[in-house]
């Protein structure tokens, strides 16, 4: 059984592996920067480290209709970090990755990070993998 962080964006529940989450911080307005991509809200200085903040709504839903209350700081294996805005961190869930239903269409633009779904206590949860998100954003900023 693995642990996953469940969070809400536009009333849809998502989760990602807890090992990808470095920390959760309260939402604060970001500083926009020139040349950023369509998903970037801006940058934040978090304890002396400049981190690009990505809109979870734009990345996963293509809509911006709810208030963002938290930022998930995601870290990959290369210690590259990125922030992702979310409406709310919901809870920690546990399930085996073998239980993920991978029969999901991942060819549309907002499903790049989706690996499948899981039925958690009769709630459909979309499972996402952000392992390459920080690396992709870092390469776009350079």
Automatic annotation (TrEMBL):
Q: Which domain of life is it from?
A: Bacteria
Q: Which GO terms describe its cellular component?
A: cytosol
Q: Which Gene3D superfamilies does this UniProt record tie to the protein? A: CheA-289, Domain 4 (2.40.50.180), SH3 Domains (2.30.30.40)
Question: Where is the signal peptide, in residue numbers?
Answer: none
Query: What PROSITE patterns does the annotation carry?
Result: CHEW
GO biological process terms on file: chemotaxis; signal transduction
Q: Which residues form the CheW-like domain?
A: 1-139
User: What's the short name of a Pfam family annotated to this entry?
Assistant: CheW
User: PANTHER family attached here?
Assistant: CHEMOTAXIS PROTEIN CHEW, CHEMOTAXIS SENSOR HISTIDINE KINASE-RELATED
Q: What is this protein called?
A: Chemotaxis protein CheW
Q: Which organism is it from?
A: Catenovulum agarivorans DS-2
